[in-house]
Design a protein that fits this description.
Blueprint: H1 2-18, H2 22-29, E1 34-40, H3 42-46, H4 55-62, E2 64-73, H5 78-89, E3 93-100, E4 103-112, E5 115-124, E6 129-139, H6 141-150
Antiparallel strand pairs: 1-2, 2-6, 3-4, 4-5, 5-6
Helix pairs in contact: 4-6
């Protein structure tokens, strides 16, 4: 019985550690270049939004956890290069990219078992900072598409 309990505990610990989200792995690898990092709970993030005006965003927050905001010193573009490698290694799919006046933003996601498991937003400009915002979630592509379609944000191309 003791052996069975020990095996179960070992499997449980392995399962918990395997659930670490990709953006946290990126942070651990590049921690020394970080100038600011904060974890935010879903309840705290939701308290800053108006339920009526931000219903789509509230829907994502309700289905999400493990919010992390990271700001990196990117003077020598090492972090940007590391993120590019990280993106390939973890099969991040690009949902949207925006460039304007030297500033860039991109929205990436990781899909597993027909669910979007992580959403990562990367932004940087001509300055020496790179900002990443990541969240762990469990929504379908259809749910995300519906949220984007019902949003009042206008997207145009030149």
């Amino acid at each position: 019985m003791k052996q069975l309990a020990t095996i179960f505990l070992a499997l449980f610990i392995t399962a918990i550690s395997a659930q670490e989200v990709a953006f946290q792995k990126f942070y651990k690898l590049n921690k020394e270049k970080s100038t600011f990092s904060i974890n935010v709970s879903a309840s705290l993030a939701g308290s800053f939004l108006d339920d009526e005006n931000d219903s789509d965003l509230m829907n994502i927050i309700k289905k999400s956890s493990d919010f992390k905001l990271m700001v990196f010193n990117n003077e020598d573009t090492v972090i940007a290069k590391n993120f590019k490698k990280f993106k390939r290694k973890n099969n991040l799919k690009t949902l949207a990219r925006i460039k304007e006046n030297g500033s860039k933003a991109a929205l990436f996601f990781i899909e597993k078992n027909n669910y979007i498991r992580e959403i990562i937003i990367k932004t940087n400009s001509n300055t020496d900072k790179l900002v990443l915002f990541g969240l762990k979630t469990k929504i379908t592509k259809e749910e995300l598409a519906a949220m984007i379609a019902s949003s009042d944000i206008e997207v145009s191309s030149k």
